[in-house]
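Attaching the record inline, Q. Sequence:
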Amino acid sequence: MNISIIDWAIVASYILFALGLGVYFSKRAGKNIDEFFISGRNLPWWLAGTSMVATTFAADTPLAVTGIVVNDGIAGNWLWWNAVLSGMLATFLFARLWRRSEIITDVEFTELRYSGPSASFLRGFRALYIGLPINCITMGWVILAMQKIVVLTFDLQDDATTKILVVLGCLLIAGIYCTLSGFWGVVMTDIVQFGMAMVGSIALAIIAINKVGGIGVLKEKLVDVYGAEHGILNFTPDFSAGEMAIITFGVYLGIQWWASNGVDGSGYIAQRMFSAKNERHTLLATLWFNIAHYTLRPWPWILVALVAMVVYPGLGNPEHVNPALHDAELGYPMLMLDYLPVGLLGLMLTAFLAAFMSTIDTHLNWGASYLVNDFYKRFFKPEASPGHYVAISRLFVILIMLIAGVTSLFMNSIEGAWKFLIALNAGIGLVQILRWYWWRINAWSEISAMVAALVVSIVVFTLPQTKDEFALQMLIIVPISTIVWIVVTFLTEPVSTETLTNFYNKVRPSRSGWKLIAAETKEAPDTNSLNLQTDSKIPALVNWVIGVVFIYSFLFSIGKLLLGFTGTGLIFLFIAIISGSIMYYNLPRKERNNN
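Structure, as predicted:
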């Protein structure tokens, strides 16, 4: 593929812009770790929320969604659509609580909520476990996606040497920028990246649809290639395919969303919650993230995937005569290279690079925050100068970058890595929910849940009977890890009353699960976590349900209207308008009107 000078100029301009921004923010980021990791807690909601969206829009996501659609149709996206339930739960039940905690990382939360040696061990263990292996697995599949794009774009040999060179080149740009700028630079480039990525993906979808003759012709060609009963455009699985389809869908909606790590918004989403100006901005940032993440982004990718299925018949078949068509995930960049004109191709390549840098920079900065704030500072050098911690932070950024690069060389499938990471954290989610709402949860609850999930995941992923059956894997991992942590919780001592009282007074969770502790404090209880605000008449759990209905109905209305199912699309749109209006007007007045 010959890339024009104009396309190259667009890509080079963005690289120079990003590096320049890194230099610009280097002095500010170098003040202290608050500035380096959470931007001094001064981000407005729209900036923090857009940064959440941008960092989850990596080079891997369009490719992974393409692979899902090719293999399982549109309904295959329930693998990640189910997380709407946890996303809205984080919005209405946890966003404000995270901001009140006034911590730098969600790992630091462990010693705010728990006490004793077990709390210290958990903080150090989580810092290393999430900051290195878990974080590097995530970064590995993002690097893998960028590697696939670069190899395909420049028609390079897909061998070990080429992979290493591509990985080093991609990481070098992102690593330099992140090391200099800290979180400020990450967030500011997120805005540019999100804009470019959305423009590029929408432009590719429009051009691809027009190239095949429009939506109507696309639907006809899908029938020609895959038969009249293909079911590719269905939004729910084909339950007539057998009990495994029913089980898988049940696992997605009944187990996966609440059982997985991050159900309370922890991780790099929490990092942006910490960086918001106040509780109001934190809630609105998380709400905007969920709206944009699930309703605005997916359909351009899905439409391109559908076009790829008819333009490249047999895409994803490992026995296809064309080796380029063996990997279903490559359908997206192949269409991009075949269809986009000069200028737009450069924009799209830049968008992929920007998306890659945004996500990698986030994970480098976020992972380093754990290693510095929750391991190095906590256990090795608690009294050093702010400048010392910033310098150590930059060294850890480089360390994580190198480990992630090596990890990516051992990966082949983005979707497979997604599923493995979900399974690796299965069963932890319920502990993360209850630690806010039930005083009896202790550090050993979390430790045992993590260890059980890790051990059982490794076993079930290697068993021949469950190796390729994700739903069965979850049905084994979640019950076992849940039973383990419940038993361990009641066999171990509760957290000290002093720690629980301090936590309750600072974070002000719901009184219902904290009655014994609330009785020990003279401070008036705050029911924000259940009622959102004292002037709200509808409990947060009801807001959560309304929010979930809004997101799903809006998501489905856009899809149905784009695919030409106008009647159904308008019904979903009506539901979205009603539920969205209720959700908006039920937000406390302070949330809606204060600037």
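Confidence is low (pLDDT under 50) at residues 524-535, 591-595. The two ends are 50 Å apart (CA to CA).

More tomorrow.
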